[in-house]
Protein backbone atom coordinates (compact mmCIF):
# COMPACT_ATOMS: atom_id res chain seq x y z
CA UNK A 1 0.00 0.00 0.00
CA UNK A 2 2.78 2.37 0.97
CA UNK A 3 4.68 1.62 -2.28
CA UNK A 4 1.59 2.42 -4.37
CA UNK A 5 1.29 5.86 -2.81
CA UNK A 6 4.96 6.61 -3.49
CA UNK A 7 4.51 5.59 -7.16
CA UNK A 8 1.54 7.94 -7.64
CA UNK A 9 3.50 10.79 -6.06
CA UNK A 10 6.38 10.27 -8.51
CA UNK A 11 3.90 10.29 -11.45
CA UNK A 12 2.38 13.59 -10.29
CA UNK A 13 5.84 15.17 -10.23
CA UNK A 14 6.60 13.95 -13.76
CA UNK A 15 3.37 15.47 -15.09
CA UNK A 16 4.19 18.81 -13.50
CA UNK A 17 7.67 18.75 -14.99
CA UNK A 18 6.32 17.85 -18.46
CA UNK A 19 3.73 20.63 -18.26
CA UNK A 20 6.41 23.16 -17.30
CA UNK A 21 8.55 22.16 -20.27
CA UNK A 22 5.61 22.28 -22.68
CA UNK A 23 4.56 25.68 -21.29
CA UNK A 24 7.92 27.12 -22.28
CA UNK A 25 7.39 25.93 -25.87
CA UNK A 26 3.77 27.15 -25.92
CA UNK A 27 4.75 30.57 -24.67
CA UNK A 28 7.59 30.65 -27.17
CA UNK A 29 5.27 29.90 -30.07
CA UNK A 30 2.80 32.48 -28.77
CA UNK A 31 5.61 35.00 -28.68
CA UNK A 32 6.59 34.15 -32.23
CA UNK A 33 2.97 34.50 -33.36
CA UNK A 34 2.47 37.85 -31.64
CA UNK A 35 5.75 39.37 -32.79
CA UNK A 36 5.47 38.16 -36.36
CA UNK A 37 1.80 39.16 -36.38
CA UNK A 38 2.88 42.65 -35.36
CA UNK A 39 5.50 42.68 -38.11
CA UNK A 40 2.89 41.54 -40.65
CA UNK A 41 0.59 44.41 -39.67
CA UNK A 42 3.48 46.88 -40.08
CA UNK A 43 4.29 45.33 -43.46
CA UNK A 44 0.67 45.66 -44.63
CA UNK A 45 0.39 49.28 -43.51
CA UNK A 46 3.76 50.13 -45.05
CA UNK A 47 2.72 48.48 -48.32
CA UNK A 48 -0.38 50.67 -48.44
CA UNK A 49 1.83 53.74 -48.03
CA UNK A 50 4.15 52.60 -50.83
CA UNK A 51 1.21 51.89 -53.16
CA UNK A 52 -0.15 55.39 -52.55
CA UNK A 53 3.30 56.88 -53.11
CA UNK A 54 3.88 55.08 -56.42
CA UNK A 55 0.39 55.78 -57.83
CA UNK A 56 0.51 59.48 -56.94
CA UNK A 57 4.02 59.91 -58.30
CA UNK A 58 3.25 58.09 -61.57
CA UNK A 59 0.40 60.51 -62.24
CA UNK A 60 2.95 63.33 -62.55
CA UNK A 61 5.27 61.64 -65.08
CA UNK A 62 4.21 63.64 -68.13
CA UNK A 63 7.61 64.09 -69.77
CA UNK A 64 8.05 67.70 -68.71
CA UNK A 65 11.37 68.92 -67.33
CA UNK A 66 9.99 69.22 -63.79
CA UNK A 67 8.03 65.96 -63.73
CA UNK A 68 10.40 64.11 -61.37
CA UNK A 69 10.29 66.99 -58.90
CA UNK A 70 6.50 67.05 -58.98
CA UNK A 71 6.30 63.25 -58.83
CA UNK A 72 8.61 63.03 -55.83
CA UNK A 73 6.66 65.67 -53.92
CA UNK A 74 3.35 63.98 -54.74
CA UNK A 75 4.67 60.55 -53.77
CA UNK A 76 6.02 61.72 -50.42
CA UNK A 77 2.81 63.57 -49.59
CA UNK A 78 0.56 60.63 -50.52
CA UNK A 79 2.70 58.00 -48.82
CA UNK A 80 3.19 59.84 -45.56
CA UNK A 81 -0.48 60.54 -44.90
CA UNK A 82 -0.90 56.79 -44.33
CA UNK A 83 -0.43 55.41 -40.81
CA UNK A 84 2.23 52.80 -40.15
CA UNK A 85 3.01 50.58 -37.11
CA UNK A 86 -0.40 49.90 -35.62
CA UNK A 87 -1.86 53.03 -37.23
CA UNK A 88 0.70 55.42 -35.83
CA UNK A 89 0.43 58.79 -37.55
CA UNK A 90 4.08 59.45 -36.73
CA UNK A 91 5.11 55.92 -37.81
CA UNK A 92 6.11 55.31 -34.16
CA UNK A 93 8.63 58.14 -34.55
CA UNK A 94 10.55 56.15 -37.17
CA UNK A 95 11.81 57.85 -40.31
CA UNK A 96 9.03 58.44 -42.80
CA UNK A 97 9.15 58.26 -46.59
CA UNK A 98 11.69 60.62 -48.17
CA UNK A 99 13.02 61.49 -51.62
CA UNK A 100 15.83 58.95 -51.15
CA UNK A 101 13.19 56.18 -51.17
CA UNK A 102 11.88 57.12 -54.65
CA UNK A 103 13.58 56.18 -57.91
CA UNK A 104 12.66 56.42 -61.59
CA UNK A 105 13.07 54.26 -64.68
CA UNK A 106 12.73 54.90 -68.42
CA UNK A 107 10.67 52.88 -70.91
CA UNK A 108 13.42 50.22 -71.06
CA UNK A 109 13.31 50.03 -67.26
CA UNK A 110 16.78 51.52 -66.87
CA UNK A 111 17.36 53.77 -63.87
CA UNK A 112 17.10 57.45 -64.85
CA UNK A 113 17.13 60.94 -63.38
CA UNK A 114 15.88 62.51 -66.62
CA UNK A 115 12.38 63.93 -66.15
CA UNK A 116 11.64 63.77 -69.87
CA UNK A 117 12.24 60.00 -70.11
CA UNK A 118 10.98 58.78 -66.71
CA UNK A 119 8.08 56.36 -67.20
CA UNK A 120 8.15 54.18 -64.07
CA UNK A 121 8.45 55.15 -60.42
CA UNK A 122 9.41 52.92 -57.49
CA UNK A 123 8.79 53.75 -53.82
CA UNK A 124 10.92 51.53 -51.58
CA UNK A 125 11.12 52.07 -47.81
CA UNK A 126 12.51 50.13 -44.85
CA UNK A 127 10.85 50.62 -41.49
CA UNK A 128 13.79 49.98 -39.19
CA UNK A 129 13.72 48.89 -35.57
CA UNK A 130 10.23 47.38 -35.36
CA UNK A 131 10.09 46.02 -31.83
CA UNK A 132 9.68 42.30 -31.13
CA UNK A 133 9.62 42.19 -27.31
CA UNK A 134 8.86 38.51 -26.85
CA UNK A 135 11.57 37.44 -29.26
CA UNK A 136 13.80 39.85 -27.45
CA UNK A 137 13.15 38.00 -24.20
CA UNK A 138 14.21 34.77 -25.87
CA UNK A 139 17.33 36.55 -27.07
CA UNK A 140 18.35 36.92 -23.44
CA UNK A 141 18.32 33.15 -23.11
CA UNK A 142 19.96 32.32 -26.44
CA UNK A 143 22.90 33.30 -28.59
CA UNK A 144 20.97 32.57 -31.82
CA UNK A 145 20.54 35.47 -34.26
CA UNK A 146 17.02 34.20 -34.92
CA UNK A 147 15.93 35.96 -31.76
CA UNK A 148 16.11 39.74 -32.08
CA UNK A 149 14.66 42.57 -30.05
CA UNK A 150 13.86 44.50 -33.28
CA UNK A 151 13.49 43.66 -36.95
CA UNK A 152 13.42 45.74 -40.16
CA UNK A 153 10.30 45.66 -42.33
CA UNK A 154 10.49 46.57 -46.02
CA UNK A 155 7.81 47.32 -48.63
CA UNK A 156 8.02 48.66 -52.16
CA UNK A 157 5.69 49.41 -55.05
CA UNK A 158 6.25 50.39 -58.66
CA UNK A 159 3.79 52.15 -60.93
CA UNK A 160 3.44 53.55 -64.42
CA UNK A 161 0.53 54.88 -66.48
CA UNK A 162 -1.73 53.15 -69.00
CA UNK A 163 -4.86 54.26 -70.91
CA UNK A 164 -8.02 54.45 -68.85
CA UNK A 165 -11.16 52.47 -69.57
CA UNK A 166 -13.15 55.66 -70.16
CA UNK A 167 -12.38 59.35 -70.64
CA UNK A 168 -13.86 62.76 -69.86
CA UNK A 169 -13.48 64.55 -73.23
CA UNK A 170 -14.86 67.74 -74.70
CA UNK A 171 -17.93 67.22 -76.92
CA UNK A 172 -15.80 67.70 -80.04
CA UNK A 173 -14.39 65.43 -82.71
CA UNK A 174 -11.01 65.83 -84.37
CA UNK A 175 -11.14 64.56 -87.95
CA UNK A 176 -7.96 62.60 -88.66
CA UNK A 177 -5.81 63.83 -91.55
CA UNK A 178 -4.72 60.23 -92.06
CA UNK A 179 -5.06 57.00 -90.12
CA UNK A 180 -1.41 56.69 -89.11
CA UNK A 181 -1.09 56.34 -85.36
CA UNK A 182 -0.37 57.95 -83.01
CA UNK A 183 -0.60 61.52 -84.42
CA UNK A 184 -3.06 60.91 -87.31
CA UNK A 185 -1.28 63.51 -89.45
CA UNK A 186 -1.01 66.29 -86.85
CA UNK A 187 2.19 67.76 -85.38
CA UNK A 188 2.71 68.56 -81.74
CA UNK A 189 2.11 72.26 -81.20
CA UNK A 190 -0.10 72.61 -84.30
CA UNK A 191 -3.10 74.91 -83.98
CA UNK A 192 -6.23 73.17 -85.22
CA UNK A 193 -9.26 75.23 -86.22
CA UNK A 194 -12.54 74.56 -84.44
CA UNK A 195 -14.77 77.10 -86.19
CA UNK A 196 -14.02 79.59 -88.96
CA UNK A 197 -16.83 81.97 -89.97
CA UNK A 198 -19.78 81.86 -87.62
CA UNK A 199 -22.23 82.86 -90.35
CA UNK A 200 -21.41 79.88 -92.53
CA UNK A 201 -20.85 76.15 -92.25
CA UNK A 202 -18.14 75.44 -89.65
CA UNK A 203 -14.76 74.63 -91.11
CA UNK A 204 -11.50 73.25 -89.91
CA UNK A 205 -10.58 69.83 -88.57
CA UNK A 206 -12.72 69.99 -85.40
CA UNK A 207 -16.46 70.26 -84.98
CA UNK A 208 -19.05 69.85 -82.25
CA UNK A 209 -19.89 66.22 -81.64
CA UNK A 210 -22.43 64.76 -79.29
CA UNK A 211 -20.93 61.93 -77.26
CA UNK A 212 -24.06 60.77 -75.44
CA UNK A 213 -26.39 60.09 -78.34
CA UNK A 214 -28.45 63.21 -77.69
CA UNK A 215 -28.86 66.19 -79.96
CA UNK A 216 -29.02 69.94 -79.70
CA UNK A 217 -27.05 72.58 -77.88
CA UNK A 218 -28.43 71.76 -74.42
CA UNK A 219 -26.95 68.26 -74.55
CA UNK A 220 -23.58 69.61 -75.68
CA UNK A 221 -23.66 72.26 -72.95
CA UNK A 222 -24.18 69.59 -70.30
CA UNK A 223 -21.19 67.69 -71.67
CA UNK A 224 -19.05 70.83 -71.56
CA UNK A 225 -19.77 71.18 -67.84
CA UNK A 226 -18.36 67.75 -67.22
CA UNK A 227 -19.04 64.42 -68.93
CA UNK A 228 -17.18 61.14 -68.45
CA UNK A 229 -17.72 57.83 -70.14
CA UNK A 230 -16.45 57.95 -73.72
CA UNK A 231 -14.16 55.19 -74.95
CA UNK A 232 -12.72 53.99 -78.24
CA UNK A 233 -15.29 52.69 -80.77
CA UNK A 234 -18.15 54.69 -79.22
CA UNK A 235 -20.33 56.48 -81.81
CA UNK A 236 -20.53 60.26 -82.12
CA UNK A 237 -23.20 62.31 -83.85
CA UNK A 238 -23.27 65.83 -85.22
CA UNK A 239 -23.87 68.56 -82.72
CA UNK A 240 -24.82 72.19 -83.12
CA UNK A 241 -23.03 74.36 -85.67
CA UNK A 242 -21.41 77.73 -85.06
CA UNK A 243 -20.70 79.45 -81.76
CA UNK A 244 -23.96 78.79 -79.95
CA UNK A 245 -24.37 81.21 -77.04
CA UNK A 246 -25.21 78.46 -74.55
CA UNK A 247 -22.09 76.52 -75.56
CA UNK A 248 -19.89 79.62 -75.36
CA UNK A 249 -21.14 80.26 -71.85
CA UNK A 250 -19.88 76.92 -70.54
CA UNK A 251 -16.78 76.86 -72.74
CA UNK A 252 -15.71 80.27 -71.42
CA UNK A 253 -16.19 79.24 -67.79
CA UNK A 254 -13.01 77.24 -68.20
CA UNK A 255 -11.25 80.57 -68.86
CA UNK A 256 -12.67 82.14 -65.70
CA UNK A 257 -15.15 84.21 -67.72
CA UNK A 258 -18.73 84.02 -66.45
CA UNK A 259 -22.16 85.33 -67.26
CA UNK A 260 -23.40 87.81 -64.69
CA UNK A 261 -21.67 89.90 -62.04
CA UNK A 262 -18.64 89.11 -59.91
CA UNK A 263 -20.92 89.17 -56.87
CA UNK A 264 -22.72 86.16 -58.34
CA UNK A 265 -19.51 84.10 -58.45
CA UNK A 266 -19.88 82.52 -55.00
CA UNK A 267 -17.51 79.80 -53.77
CA UNK A 268 -20.25 77.19 -54.26
CA UNK A 269 -20.81 78.39 -57.83
CA UNK A 270 -17.11 78.33 -58.69
CA UNK A 271 -16.71 74.86 -57.19
CA UNK A 272 -19.50 73.65 -59.49
CA UNK A 273 -18.36 75.50 -62.63
CA UNK A 274 -14.62 75.39 -62.13
CA UNK A 275 -12.16 77.42 -64.19
CA UNK A 276 -8.69 76.34 -65.18
CA UNK A 277 -5.77 77.67 -63.16
CA UNK A 278 -5.39 80.33 -65.85
CA UNK A 279 -7.75 82.09 -68.20
CA UNK A 280 -5.04 83.51 -70.46
CA UNK A 281 -6.11 83.32 -74.09
CA UNK A 282 -3.82 82.79 -77.09
CA UNK A 283 -4.81 84.12 -80.51
CA UNK A 284 -2.96 85.11 -83.67
CA UNK A 285 -3.27 88.70 -82.43
CA UNK A 286 -1.35 88.33 -79.17
CA UNK A 287 0.75 85.23 -79.96
CA UNK A 288 3.20 85.04 -82.84
CA UNK A 289 5.28 81.91 -82.20
CA UNK A 290 5.60 79.92 -85.44
CA UNK A 291 6.38 76.33 -86.26
CA UNK A 292 8.85 75.22 -88.93
CA UNK A 293 6.18 75.80 -91.59
CA UNK A 294 5.47 79.35 -90.44
CA UNK A 295 2.13 78.50 -88.84
CA UNK A 296 0.99 79.66 -85.40
CA UNK A 297 1.95 77.12 -82.78
CA UNK A 298 3.35 76.13 -79.48
CA UNK A 299 1.44 78.03 -76.82
CA UNK A 300 1.64 75.13 -74.37
CA UNK A 301 5.40 75.09 -74.02
CA UNK A 302 8.60 76.21 -75.69
CA UNK A 303 9.27 73.81 -78.56
CA UNK A 304 12.31 75.75 -79.81
CA UNK A 305 10.74 76.87 -83.07
CA UNK A 306 11.26 80.40 -84.42
CA UNK A 307 10.76 82.31 -81.18
CA UNK A 308 11.77 81.77 -77.58
CA UNK A 309 8.39 82.07 -75.89
CA UNK A 310 9.06 80.11 -72.73
CA UNK A 311 8.47 83.15 -70.56
CA UNK A 312 4.92 83.56 -71.82
CA UNK A 313 3.59 80.05 -72.41
CA UNK A 314 0.44 78.46 -71.08
CA UNK A 315 2.50 76.69 -68.43
CA UNK A 316 3.98 80.02 -67.37
CA UNK A 317 0.56 81.63 -67.04
CA UNK A 318 -0.85 78.61 -65.24
CA UNK A 319 1.89 78.80 -62.61
CA UNK A 320 1.16 82.51 -62.19
CA UNK A 321 -2.65 81.98 -62.15
CA UNK A 322 -2.99 84.68 -64.80
CA UNK A 323 -6.37 85.99 -65.92
CA UNK A 324 -7.41 86.21 -69.56
CA UNK A 325 -5.00 89.11 -70.14
CA UNK A 326 -2.12 87.86 -68.02
CA UNK A 327 -2.54 89.66 -64.72
CA UNK A 328 -4.13 89.11 -61.33
CA UNK A 329 -6.95 91.62 -61.77
CA UNK A 330 -10.64 90.88 -61.97
CA UNK A 331 -12.95 93.08 -63.99
CA UNK A 332 -16.54 93.55 -65.00
CA UNK A 333 -15.45 94.96 -68.37
CA UNK A 334 -14.38 91.70 -69.98
CA UNK A 335 -14.55 93.07 -73.49
CA UNK A 336 -12.00 95.78 -72.72
CA UNK A 337 -9.73 93.65 -70.55
CA UNK A 338 -10.03 90.31 -72.35
CA UNK A 339 -11.69 90.56 -75.73
CA UNK A 340 -9.79 93.50 -77.22
CA UNK A 341 -6.26 92.30 -76.35
CA UNK A 342 -7.06 88.98 -77.99
CA UNK A 343 -8.40 90.68 -81.11
CA UNK A 344 -12.06 89.82 -80.47
CA UNK A 345 -14.56 92.39 -81.63
CA UNK A 346 -16.99 91.06 -79.07
CA UNK A 347 -17.26 88.33 -76.48
CA UNK A 348 -20.56 86.60 -75.86
CA UNK A 349 -23.19 89.10 -74.74
CA UNK A 350 -23.73 89.04 -70.98
CA UNK A 351 -20.41 87.38 -70.17
CA UNK A 352 -18.93 90.28 -68.29
CA UNK A 353 -17.30 88.80 -65.19
CA UNK A 354 -13.70 87.59 -65.11
CA UNK A 355 -12.67 86.14 -61.77
CA UNK A 356 -9.44 87.20 -60.08
CA UNK A 357 -6.05 85.62 -60.64
CA UNK A 358 -2.78 85.54 -58.75
CA UNK A 359 -1.80 83.27 -55.84
CA UNK A 360 -4.70 84.46 -53.66
CA UNK A 361 -7.28 84.76 -56.44
CA UNK A 362 -10.22 82.62 -57.48
CA UNK A 363 -8.30 80.87 -60.28
CA UNK A 364 -5.93 79.38 -57.72
CA UNK A 365 -8.57 78.75 -55.05
CA UNK A 366 -11.12 77.05 -57.31
CA UNK A 367 -9.17 76.19 -60.47
CA UNK A 368 -8.30 72.74 -61.74
CA UNK A 369 -7.10 71.14 -64.97
CA UNK A 370 -9.82 72.37 -67.35
CA UNK A 371 -8.03 73.40 -70.55
CA UNK A 372 -5.66 70.52 -71.27
CA UNK A 373 -8.32 68.08 -72.41
CA UNK A 374 -8.86 64.85 -74.36
CA UNK A 375 -10.71 65.20 -77.67
CA UNK A 376 -12.12 62.21 -79.59
CA UNK A 377 -10.50 61.43 -82.95
CA UNK A 378 -12.74 60.21 -85.76
CA UNK A 379 -11.74 58.81 -89.12
CA UNK A 380 -14.63 60.22 -91.15
CA UNK A 381 -16.33 63.57 -91.67
CA UNK A 382 -18.77 64.72 -89.04
CA UNK A 383 -21.79 64.64 -91.36
CA UNK A 384 -21.73 60.87 -91.05
CA UNK A 385 -24.04 59.85 -88.21
CA UNK A 386 -22.29 56.50 -87.82
CA UNK A 387 -18.85 58.00 -87.16
CA UNK A 388 -17.03 56.21 -84.35
CA UNK A 389 -14.23 57.29 -82.04
CA UNK A 390 -10.95 55.71 -83.14
CA UNK A 391 -8.65 57.34 -80.60
CA UNK A 392 -8.17 60.40 -78.39
CA UNK A 393 -5.98 63.47 -78.84
CA UNK A 394 -4.66 65.63 -76.02
CA UNK A 395 -5.36 69.28 -76.81
CA UNK A 396 -5.09 72.72 -75.25
CA UNK A 397 -8.08 75.06 -75.34
CA UNK A 398 -6.47 78.27 -76.61
CA UNK A 399 -9.21 80.90 -76.63
CA UNK A 400 -12.64 81.63 -75.20
CA UNK A 401 -15.44 81.59 -77.75
CA UNK A 402 -16.40 85.01 -79.19
CA UNK A 403 -19.88 86.27 -79.85
CA UNK A 404 -21.60 85.05 -83.00
CA UNK A 405 -21.35 88.58 -84.39
CA UNK A 406 -17.53 88.27 -84.47
CA UNK A 407 -17.09 86.90 -87.98
CA UNK A 408 -13.32 87.30 -88.11
CA UNK A 409 -11.70 85.29 -85.37
CA UNK A 410 -10.96 81.62 -85.72
CA UNK A 411 -11.19 79.45 -82.63
CA UNK A 412 -8.34 76.99 -82.19
CA UNK A 413 -7.09 74.16 -80.04
CA UNK A 414 -3.43 73.15 -79.90
CA UNK A 415 -2.55 69.53 -80.65
CA UNK A 416 -0.38 68.13 -77.83
CA UNK A 417 -0.11 64.60 -79.14
CA UNK A 418 -2.01 61.40 -78.65
CA UNK A 419 -3.71 61.30 -75.25
CA UNK A 420 -2.07 57.95 -74.50
CA UNK A 421 1.48 59.08 -75.33
CA UNK A 422 3.79 58.40 -72.37
CA UNK A 423 4.63 62.10 -72.17
CA UNK A 424 1.08 63.34 -72.66
CA UNK A 425 -0.02 66.13 -70.29
CA UNK A 426 -3.55 64.68 -70.38
CA UNK A 427 -4.23 62.67 -67.26
CA UNK A 428 -7.39 60.95 -66.12
CA UNK A 429 -8.99 59.40 -63.07
CA UNK A 430 -10.57 56.01 -63.31
CA UNK A 431 -9.84 52.39 -63.98
CA UNK A 432 -6.87 51.33 -66.11
CA UNK A 433 -7.26 48.78 -68.84
CA UNK A 434 -8.41 50.86 -71.81
CA UNK A 435 -7.07 50.75 -75.34
CA UNK A 436 -6.85 54.50 -76.00
CA UNK A 437 -7.19 57.78 -74.20
CA UNK A 438 -5.69 59.65 -71.25
CA UNK A 439 -3.38 57.81 -68.93
CA UNK A 440 -4.12 56.66 -65.38
CA UNK A 441 -1.58 55.31 -62.89
CA UNK A 442 -1.42 51.56 -62.36
CA UNK A 443 0.72 49.35 -60.12
CA UNK A 444 3.02 47.00 -62.03
CA UNK A 445 4.92 45.37 -59.15
Number of beta-strand segments: 14
Q: Please give the order of strands in the largest beta sheet.
A: 6-13-12-11-5-7-8
Q: Report the sheet with the most strands, covering strand number, pairing sense and barrel closure.
A: 7 strands, mixed
The percent range for strand residues is 15-25%
Helix content: 25-40%
* Helix-and-strand structural type: alpha+beta
Order of helices and strands: HHEEEHEEEEHEHEHHHEHEEEE
Unreliable runs: 196-202
Number of helices: 9
Overall shape: it is elongated
Number of domains: 2
End-to-end C-alpha gap: 75 Å
What does the secondary structure layout of this molecule look like, with pairings?
Layout: H1 2-58, H2 67-80, E1 102-105, E2 111-112, E3 120-131, H3 133-141, E4 150-163, E5 172-175, E6 191-195, E7 206-210, H4 217-226, E8 237-238, H5 245-253, E9 257-258, H6 267-272, H7 314-320, H8 334-339, E10 353-354, H9 362-366, E11 372-378, E12 389-397, E13 411-418, E14 439-443
Helix pairs in contact: 1-2, 1-3, 4-5
Structural features:
445 residues, alpha+beta, 2 domains, seven-stranded mixed sheet, five-stranded antiparallel sheet, 9 helices, 14 strands, 28% helix, elongated
Quick overview of this protein structure:
This protein has 445 residues and is α+β, with helices and mostly antiparallel strands. The protein is 28% helix and 18% strand.
